[in-house]
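Translate structure to sequence.
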């Protein structure tokens, strides 16, 4: 059977170059192959980079107000086509359409943020720092930059990167996940319709071959990445060895601490929503509840009631709350980790391993799993499962819970549920995690702040979007200028002083 092949997007149009290698695209709800995607070789990477390099020369000179106008139009088109984009994401990823709409909405926040790029790129002036001498600081674009994005948010993560980079005057090459790549091409079409010049935004599909070429290419000046920690480390090391700026965000094992005084109904709602949304395939998913004192005995029945009421099914069913995971291999991996949790002594309160959906028996479904009495040495605690599995660890006190969180090598996000303002404030100050929620289970900042964890959850010194993103995609230039009077002449070998 011949399948449609998704092409690259280069120079403002689909690339006509024939693909020597392709990848399979599946519908996770049915398990059926629905299309193929072209995999870039070194020649196609070079063509995309050259296209971006040429485009960046003129785009960087476009007045910042005109760049802003492109993003106003782009924002309108994204909003207009949000449902279409969400349906495309659901087809290839498996998440519900409502969940996919939320992904588009969070990406739109960043587009709205960079509509204010004239304000965000304002420089600094210090006049008359010395006699007739002025100092100015401006931020200039890097040139060609690239983004490598994961399957779990095929639209949102890219939208956290390229609007900021392009608004700053760079040209951007996006390498989306090969598992659900189609939405990237559709967004590229909308960007072109908004008036973005050819070559400023290119989409390259592929696997490790394309990634390594981008990391090594001398004309690519910076790389943004989101994915697992081992690959994030590799991207950071390889990119920096080739002289690039790199922001590489890795894995997570996010903890939610529940104190005995917490509103446990609210905590149960938050934990289940954050653990099982998008089938747990979120880097900000809550995967561990650290229940303090007697809160576990009261919380577990509330969690169990909510977990067992979740409706699992295909995105085509409007009643579905949770869809399949991305691949058959991932489903089997999750099942294997749940098996290990049982073997290692954890209590499996809710078992989703045997779930089958009528009419979708070949889909990549696994039901929500809830564990109690998990300990830190167990594989279900140590591994980033990236699936619908929630682990409850019982902690004797607040100190033990904080030590548990701080001992983790991951430090993406965390949350505390409590009515005690003093405990919350102490948690906020002493916890060694980059993003903290207080009675908020998924503390993803809005676009005018920045997203980024600590420890093995990030490699590099810049978070994504916000002012951190502006700084990552630009470099500082400081100019010292003197316009002396004709009388102020003569050689002076002394070191310049501010009061000269």
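Result:
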């Amino acid at each position: 059977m011949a399948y449609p092949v998704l092409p690259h997007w280069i120079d403002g149009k689909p690339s006509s170059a024939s693909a020597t290698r392709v990848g399979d695209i599946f519908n996770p709800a049915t398990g059926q192959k629905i299309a193929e995607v072209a995999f870039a070789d070194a020649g196609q990477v070079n063509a995309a980079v050259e296209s971006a390099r040429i485009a960046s020369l003129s785009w960087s000179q476009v007045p910042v107000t005109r760049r802003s106008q492109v993003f106003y139009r782009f924002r309108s088109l994204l909003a207009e086509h949000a449902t279409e984009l969400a349906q495309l994401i659901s087809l290839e990823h498996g998440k519900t359409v409502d969940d996919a709409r939320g992904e588009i909405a969070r990406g739109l926040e960043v587009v709205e943020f960079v509509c204010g790029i004239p304000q965000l790129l304002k420089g600094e002036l210090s006049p008359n720092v010395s006699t007739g001498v002025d100092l100015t600081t401006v931020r200039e674009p890097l040139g060609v930059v690239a983004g490598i994005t994961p399957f779990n948010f095929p639209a949102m993560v890219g939208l956290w990167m390229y609007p900021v980079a392009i608004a700053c005057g760079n040209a951007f090459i996006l390498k989306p996940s090969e598992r659900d790549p189609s939405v990237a091409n559709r967004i590229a079409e909308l960007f072109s319709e908004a008036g973005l010049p050819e070559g400023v935004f290119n989409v390259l599909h592929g696997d490790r071959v394309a990634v390594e070429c981008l990391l090594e290419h001398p004309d690519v000046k910076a790389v943004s990445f989101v994915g697992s920690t081992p690959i994030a480390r590799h991207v950071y090391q390889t990119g920096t060895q080739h002289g690039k700026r790199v922001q590489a965000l890795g894995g997570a094992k996010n903890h939610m601490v529940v104190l005995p005084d917490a509103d446990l109904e609210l905590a149960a709602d938050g934990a289940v929503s954050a653990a099982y949304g998008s089938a747990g395939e979120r880097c900000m998913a809550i995967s561990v509840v650290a229940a303090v004192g007697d809160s576990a005995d009261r919380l577990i029945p509330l969690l169990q009631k909510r977990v067992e009421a979740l409706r699992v099914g295909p995105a085509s069913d409007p009643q579905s709350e949770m869809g399949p995971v991305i691949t058959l291999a991932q489903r089997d991996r999750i099942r294997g980790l749940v098996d290990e949790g049982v073997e290692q002594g954890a209590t499996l309160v809710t078992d989703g391993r045997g779930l089958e959906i009528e009419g979708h028996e070949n889909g990549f479904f696994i039901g929500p799993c809830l564990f109690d009495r998990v300990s830190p040495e167990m594989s279900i605690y140590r591994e980033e499962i990236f699936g619908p599995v929630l682990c409850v660890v019982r902690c004797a006190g607040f100190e033990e819970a904080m030590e548990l969180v701080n001992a983790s090598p991951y430090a993406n996000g965390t949350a505390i549920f409590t009515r005690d303002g003093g405990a919350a404030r102490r948690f906020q100050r002493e916890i060694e995690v980059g993003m903290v929620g207080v009675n908020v289970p998924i503390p993803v900042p809005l676009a005018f702040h920045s997203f980024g964890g600590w420890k093995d959850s990030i490699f590099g010194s810049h978070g994504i979007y916000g002012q951190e993103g502006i700084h990552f995609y630009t470099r500082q230039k400081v100019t010292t200028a003197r316009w002396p009077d004709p009388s102020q002449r003569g050689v002076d070998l002394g070191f310049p002083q501010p009061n000269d």
